[in-house]
Write a structure and sequence with these properties.
The complex is a heterodimer.
Chain A (H helix, E strand, L loop, with lengths): L3 E10 L2 E11 L4 E5 L6 H8 L7 E6 L2 E2 L4 H7 E4 L11 H11 L4 H14 L15 H13 L5 E5 L7 H18 L2 E6 L2 H4 L4 E6 L2 E6 L1 H6 L4 E7 L2 H12 L4 E3 L2 E6 L2 H11 L4 E7 L3 H9 L3 H22 L1
Parallel strand pairs in A: 3-8, 3-9, 6-7, 7-8
Antiparallel strand pairs in A: 1-2, 1-4, 4-5, 9-10, 11-13, 11-14, 12-13
Chain B lengths: L1 H20 L1 H23 L11 H20 L2 H8 L2 H7 L4 H26 L9 H26 L5 H17 L12 H9 L1 H14 L1 H10 L9 E2 L2 E2 L2 H25 L2
Antiparallel strand pairs in B: 1-2
Helix pairs in contact in B: 1-6, 2-3, 3-6, 3-7, 3-8, 3-10, 6-7, 6-12, 7-10, 7-12, 10-12
The chains are: A alpha/beta, B mainly alpha.
């Protein structure tokens, strides 16, 4: 049985289709990454999977339970860490966890033992009785992860688990997530728009404008680009691109004043290019493909650029929702 | 059903936990009624003559202040929902396997418990204000206070169920709370005001809460006043269509209005996604 089965899941906000007939499966025990710019439909999808939002149409099954007809069963088998903090800052770490234990019907004899366990897991044992408002951002996130795990869920949702954290804390959280998967046989479903973090996933699906446009392992996605990525800047980018097309039979793209294209074995290709190139060059570089490159290839733009446009769209969507009420 | 009960107790448990950890809130909750009593009781005491034999203004206003305290803390309790929505904790509650009605009832139960605590403080102060209370009166008051608190918390939760900002909630609450408070017979007998005001007062659910508490606290003094006033019924009570309400009837009105408000609150809260 797959941990998550999604078939033609759709959600509209008025006329705007936030998620459009999305289908995918998440296997048990894998880290599944959901990638895309803000407003691409990531959070809408997660909200539907965790029973916070009703799908307009389609079906989603988690751990064998339908999200529409068996909400409570689904809620019992998932743990959630949201993008925005959802802790009660005026309570202590322990009180937050205890509330969660009560809410998820953890048997009384297990309760305190589990609280001790999860606090140890996230290195917060010594802060058990501290008020959450005294915690740093990273500590809060860790406490939320601990809380998400308290009731032994089968699937853990992490919505942008490292958003707004400093690089060191981000690394810390990631080490922790990877360690967690080894120890707990947990399925992890996470969204991120940090491409470097997505590399840690077993499989990645890229979502844009409510559609899934790719789904594979990070390795295969990068291989699909066909080799290494060359980035160069010429005095006349258009002329240089034309020359690349004609002389080397490549398909270069111009973006932000840079020309990019993929070639197999870039380190061998580069000397040959430089010897034979007519147009004056300013700079040239080659790197192994990253998921960023994959994203550019798939959507025709970098994830950062995409965000700006999408944010406006998001705002528009929100105001449409407000007016709808 | 067990889901509803579980939801109710968990949410009310946290509500109380929060109440006691926030010292400023605990303090103001206890302090507010004292201020009201001091101003309206001691301040107006010497300006306003006895309303009827044996009932001076302080005695008249004392039950009203209890009701007002309950009104304030009950309606205001809704703010914790708005607070939770603003700071994200509501999401933690909403994704938990708890029933939506249980969550609403838990908020209401927590609010009722806090309102009850306030009224008990007021009851403890009675001897200092020369209001005579028997143990029986106190025992009779407690369930009445709880009923009023539950009904009015229903209104608070109903308003809060879809609000997104605390400021917005506070503005609306102020607009609602003032007419409810001043047109309820807390400060003047509703039977002795201009008829347009009396009509509004008699639509106001708080009026019946105030009257029920007042009848229980003043007991024989009200009926004595009634005797003086003759057939038109008690000057201090509430007369609807020529009928002077008894405490029991008052409570029935509060229960009925409360049931409607609670049902609406649960409906409105459950509808959100």
């Amino acid at each position: 049985m797959n941990a998550i089965e999604v078939r033609e899941l759709t959600r509209n906000y008025g006329k705007l289709i936030a998620v459009d007939k999305v289908s995918f499966q998440v296997f048990e025990g894998e880290i599944f990454g959901f990638l895309g710019p803000n407003g691409a439909g990531k959070t809408t999808t997660i909200n539907m999977l965790c029973t916070l939002l009703k799908p307009t149409s389609g079906k989603a099954v988690l751990c064998g339970h339908d999200v529409q007809t068996h909400r409570n069963q689904v809620r019992h088998c998932i743990g959630l860490v949201f993008q925005d903090p959802t802790l009660d800052e005026y309570l202590t770490a322990e009180q937050n966890l205890r509330f969660h234990a009560y809410a998820y019907k953890l048997p009384a004899e297990l309760r305190e033992k589990r609280i001790t366990e999860v606090l140890a897991l996230v290195d917060l044992s010594d802060r058990r009785k501290s008020h959450v408002r005294t915690f740093s951002g990273g500590m809060k996130r860790r406490l939320e992860i601990a809380r998400g795990l308290l009731h032994n869920p089968k699937v853990l949702f992490l919505d942008e688990p490292t958003l707004g954290l400093d690089p060191q804390t981000r690394r810390h959280i990631w080490n922790f997530v990877l360690q967690l998967r080894q120890q707990q046989k947990l399925t992890i479903f996470l969204t991120t728009h940090y491409m470097d973090e997505a590399e840690n996933c077993d499989r990645i699906s890229v979502i844009d404008h409510g559609h899934i446009i790719a789904l594979d392992t990070p390795e295969k996605l990068k291989d699909s680009l066909g080799g290494d990525v060359v980035t160069m800047m010429a005095e006349d980018n258009d002329a240089a691109a034309r020359e690349l097309k004609e002389k080397f039979n490549l398909s270069p793209e111009i973006q932000n004043g840079h020309i990019t294209f993929s070639v197999p074995r870039g380190e061998v290709f580069l000397p040959r290019l430089i010897q034979n190139f007519q147009e004056p060059l300013i700079s040239i570089g080659v790197h192994r493909p990253t998921l960023d490159d994959v994203f550019i290839k798939l959507t025709g733009r970098a994830i950062r650029d995409a965000e700006m446009g999408e944010k406006d769209q998001m705002k528009q969507m929100m105001s449409m929702r407000m007016r709808g009420r | 059903m067990t889901d509803i009960i579980r939801g109710t107790w968990i949410v009310s448990y946290r509500e109380l936990l929060r109440f006691f950890t926030e010292r400023s809130r605990t303090f103001s909750t206890i302090f507010m009624p004292l201020v009201f009593l001091a101003i309206f009781g001691a301040g107006f005491q010497n300006l306003i003559p006895n309303l009827s034999p044996g009932v001076d203004f302080l005695k008249f206003v004392y039950p009203g202040i209890i009701a007002m305290t309950v009104l304030q803390s009950s309606i205001f309790s809704g703010i914790s929902i708005v607070w939770d929505r603003e700071f994200g904790f509501l999401k933690e509650i909403l994704v938990a396997p708890l029933s939506r009605s249980g969550i609403v009832l838990g908020k209401v139960a927590g609010a009722a418990a806090i309102a009850l605590m306030q009224s008990i403080i007021m009851l403890i102060l009675a001897p200092f204000l020369h209001v005579e209370l028997t143990l029986l009166t106190v025992v009779a008051l407690i369930p009445v206070v709880i009923i009023i608190a539950i009904s009015l918390s229903g209104l608070g939760v109903l308003i809060a169920s879809r609000m997104r900002s605390q400021q917005g909630f506070q503005v609306i609450i102020q607009v609602i709370i003032f007419p409810l408070m001043f047109l309820s017979g807390v400060f003047f007998p509703i039977n002795s005001v201009p008829s347009w005001m009396a009509v509004i007062g008699k639509i106001n659910p708080v009026t019946y809460g105030v009257d029920a508490i007042r009848q229980i606290v003043l007991g024989k003094n009200i009926s004595a006043a009634g005797g003086v006033m003759g057939e038109s019924g008690s000057q201090l009570g509430v007369t609807v269509f020529g009928h002077t309400m008894t405490a029991g009837q008052d409570i029935l009105v509060v229960v009925a209005i409360g049931a409607v408000l609670l049902a609406l609150a649960i409906w409105s809260f459950s509808r959100q996604e």
